[in-house]
Design brief:
There is one protein chain. The chain is an alpha/beta fold and 813 residues long. It is built from 34 helices and 22 strands. The strands form 6 sheets. Strands 8, 9, 10, 11, 12 and 13 form a 6-stranded parallel sheet that branches. Strand 14 and strand 15 form a beta hairpin. Helix 12 crosses helix 24. The chain starts with 34 loop residues before the first strand and ends with a strand.
């Protein structure tokens, strides 16, 4: 089973930073650092909210409770007011002084005193920030490692908070402020990082330190890398919190809105703890999948199980193999991190291992059930029945599928299929089957007694769904003369569990997939294949049990057919899931009592997995769809999660294809319909849910246009447009990693100071630069929904007489 250290994450662990994907480039080099400079927010400090502005809504909620804000101003309304107040304060400050840096007090001066008590809200904002913030243990680990080497540490922030307010927040988060030598903040220095001026100010404090030996780390390229470079300082980009189009969290937002907002930054940090460093790209993808998706879902199951164990005094649990390969160590780690004593002892069992042992007799119904299993061979039939083959009539047909035997005639003129049926229903066959049933039962009950002492008192844990194995276990011990006193805990349960409860079973599920069930439960129950595969180890299902000469009973397992690459990827995913648990425990401890455990909101914690199942990224559909699924019930069935289907199913488009996946497996066997659709139509599902999330607004049109740009292989282009909509398009282009060096805004002078990483230009300047560069024709992204003819005409007119014909990208439905 995969093993990871149970030691909790600690910011004082001076080696922790070396496991960070972005900080590891400094490994073995910190002795050469003369001064470590750190950004604060989204670098040294993370927040327990989806977006920084969400802090303002929390401020309003607390202000309402304390009478500091008029009740008719809703939390969302105050959030928008607070954002606008900052913009107004910066504009006024720029007009007055030429600098845009403001203080928190200046921001609140823009909010009317008639609706709030400004001084109280200033104080409350600092308090709420302190409540939301926590130390990034990776950066803090590096800070303490540098201090151990006697390297000075400075904190440099573009922020409206004062240095005193920042110190209060940092101290509340647990930072030892004695380890910080200098704290510079733009609101006090009246200088920001992007211009390089704040870094120049930093150098004044350390004139003896060469600029080249100063390292600054931050999340903003313009401020923390380019700004540092202007002062001759090395800037290291730290994009852990940064959102972008390929981010799992962006795709979750499109499908579900903000998912686990309190834990969003923590999940990103766990994914940045790259324990799979140096591995192949597929392993890195699956490691992050473990930290971001599989880990949260399975840890929620672990927490739910632990809650029940505490409530009911349970000290030993029995997860079912094969999924217990990952679930067992996760249960052990969850218990240890929670300070609980819990024995986790897996039970080797499967549908096939319990099938014969759970029969009272073998009649026509049982025979029909087995003979209808697709692909079952004659040899496999006798193996599962445990009946020795002493009939020469079948020896020549052992490798023949049962279905094929319907059309093969034996020496006496009967089909082999009929001979099989007659043999198994004969007195001789029935006698052998009765002996086999009893032997299977004795071995299974003997195995349970040997391993667990009381075979009738198991506490089983499984992913789900029908409770088939659990029902079989209770029936088997009952047939053996024992009274079942078992508890069965499933991640997801169908309506079938209700029937089992009517039979007296204590079987519970964290999520329900049947009538009245959750959306996540239903989706997971429909498509469990890759979840199950990623939890398994290097061995197959339990087929049966055998007893050696000493009387010891051992499970016999199927051989597993996996490539080394696939097995390495699964191990990377499992390491990621275990790693997530440690980060989860870190944040829970940091915010003791202020955020709830995962088990309190299982539906919310299932949304990351639901999103992958319902709306996978193309990369996820490719990597997860290439995993193989092996079912060892009676016959060895191995297939890709996304196994190829006939081309005809795709011809009517993605919607028709998804509808076709409702057919029975005998018509079209599709394990993961959304994965298959995404592999063929990569952004269909994203586009569909983007439209729904945007209320059928402009976002889907912008997305389609940017996809055309990327499909044409264009990485850099100019923006033409004006106003808020053009700004929206600009930010969307950045979000898709497209470079927009110049913005031609008809309403803005070319010499106007830009607010972002671009320059304002005129069309005449754009033509001159394009001709001077000697490169291919320039590309323009036209950001308008009204000037559909005017804007393209202006661009083409500007290039009349030029050898260059610009390529135009317009927003179209």
């Amino acid at each position: 089973m995969p093993k990871e250290p149970h030691a909790p994450i600690s910011p004082t662990d001076q080696l922790l930073w070396e496991k960070d994907r972005y900080l590891s480039v400094l490994a073995g080099k910190i002795q050469g650092i003369g001064l470590l400079s750190l950004d604060i927010f989204d670098t040294l400090l993370f927040r327990t909210c989806a977006n920084p502005s969400d802090v303002f809504a929390e401020i309003a909620e607390q202000a309402h409770r304390n009478g500091f804000l008029k009740t008719y101003v809703s939390c969302e309304a105050f959030k928008e007011m607070r954002i606008r107040a900052e913009h107004k304060a910066r504009a006024k400050q720029t007009a007055r002084t030429g600098f845009s840096e403001v203080t928190l007090e200046l921001i609140y001066e823009e909010i009317p005193e008639a609706i709030c008590r400004r001084e109280e809200l200033v104080r409350l904002e600092v308090e709420v920030e302190a409540e939301c913030c926590y130390l990034n243990p990776h950066i803090t680990s590096l800070l303490y490692a540098c201090k151990k080497e006697r390297i000075p540490v400075a904190l440099v922030s573009d922020m409206y908070l004062s240095s005193e307010q920042l110190r209060r927040i940092l101290a509340s988060a647990g930072l030892d402020l004695s380890q910080v030598d200098t704290l510079l903040v733009s609101s006090e220095e009246r200088e920001g990082k992007s211009s390089g001026h704040l870094f120049a100010r930093l150098k004044e404090f350390y004139p003896q330190i060469d600029s080249q030996s100063i390292v600054h780390i931050g999340d903003n390229v313009a401020a923390d890398v380019e700004g540092a470079s202007k002062a001759g300082i090395r800037g290291l980009h730290y994009p852990v919190i940064l959102e972008h189009f390929e981010s799992i969290h962006h795709w979750e937002f499109v499908r579900h809105g903000d998912v686990l907002p309190e834990w969003k930054s923590l999940r990103k940090l766990a994914a940045a703890s790259d324990l799979a460093a140096g591995s192949g790209e597929k392993e890195r993808v699956l490691y992050q999948f473990g930290t971001d998706v599989i880990g949260p879902f399975l840890h929620t199951l672990c927490e739910w199980v632990l809650d029940i164990c505490v409530q009911e005094g349970i000290t030993c649990v029995n997860p079912l193999m094969r999924e217990a390969y990952l679930l067992a160590p996760m249960l052990e780690q969850a218990a240890q991190l929670r300070g609980m004593e819990l024995q986790v002892k897996p039970v080797y069992v499967s549908r096939q291992a319990t099938y014969m042992a759970g029969l009272e007799h073998f009649g026509e119904d049982e025979l029909a059930y087995l003979l209808n299993i697709q692909g079952l061979k004659v040899r496999e039939l006798f193996d599962v029945l445990g009946v020795g083959l002493d009939e020469e009539a079948f020896e020549a047909y052992l490798e023949k599928p049962i279905e094929a035997c319907k059309y093969i005639t034996g020496d006496n003129g009967e089909t082999i299929y009929s001979l099989l049926c007659n043999y198994l229903q004969s007195e001789s066959g029935q006698s052998k089957l009765s002996v086999s049933i009893e032997r299977h039962r004795q071995l299974l009950v003997g195995y349970l007694t040997q391993e667990f002492g009381s075979p009738n008192r198991l506490v089983t844990i499984d992913i789900g769904f029908q409770g088939t194995i659990q029902g079989a276990l209770e029936k088997i011990v009952r047939l053996a003369g024992l009274q079942p006193e078992m508890l069965h805990l499933l991640a997801v349960g169908t309506n079938r569990l209700d029937e089992l409860r009517l039979q007296g079973m204590d079987i519970r599920s964290m999520l329900r997939s049947g009538s009245g069930g959750s959306e996540s439960g239903k989706r997971i129950a429909r498509t469990p294949a890759f979840l199950e595969e990623l939890m398994m180890g290097g061995f197959g299902s339990t087929l049966r049990y055998s007893e050696d000469d000493s009387g010891r009973i051992s499970p016999i397992q199927a051989k597993l057919h996996r490539s080394e690459e696939e097995y390495a990827g699964k191990l990377a995913c499992q390491k990621g899931a275990l790693s997530f648990q440690r980060y989860y425990a870190y944040l829970l401890q940091q915010k003791d009592g202020r955020i709830s455990r995962a088990s309190m909101h299982p539906e919310e914690w299932s949304k990351p997995l639901h999103r992958v199942l319902a709306m996978p990224k193309p990369e996820e559909a490719r990597v997860l769809g290439d995993l193989t699924h092996q079912d060892n019930f009676c016959t060895e069935y191995i297939a890709l999660i996304c196994e190829a289907v006939a081309e005809e199913w795709y011809l009517a488009g993605p919607e028709a294809f998804l509808n076709s996946c409702n057919y029975a497996p005998s018509v079209m066997n599709v394990n993961w319909p959304q994965g298959m659709a995404t592999r063929r139509f990569p952004y269909y599902l994203y586009h569909y849910y983007l439209q729904l999330a945007d209320g059928f607004g402009s976002q889907a049109m912008i997305f389609d246009t940017l996809q055309r740009v990327k499909k044409d292989g264009i990485a850099s282009l100019m923006l033409y447009g004006t106003g808020a909509f053009a700004e929206q398009v600009l930010k969307a282009a950045w979000f898709h990693a497209l470079h927009i060096p110049y913005w031609i805004d008809p309403a803005v002078e070319a010499h106007t100071a830009p607010w972002g990483r671009f320059s304002y230009k005129t069309l005449e300047q754009a033509r001159a630069m394009s001709e001077a560069s000697g490169r291919t024709a320039p590309a323009f992204l036209i950001a308008t929904l009204s000037e559909l003819e005017t804007y393209p005409s202006r661009i083409l007119e500007a290039f009349e007489g030029s050898d260059l014909t610009p390529k135009l990208y317009q927003l179209r439905p």
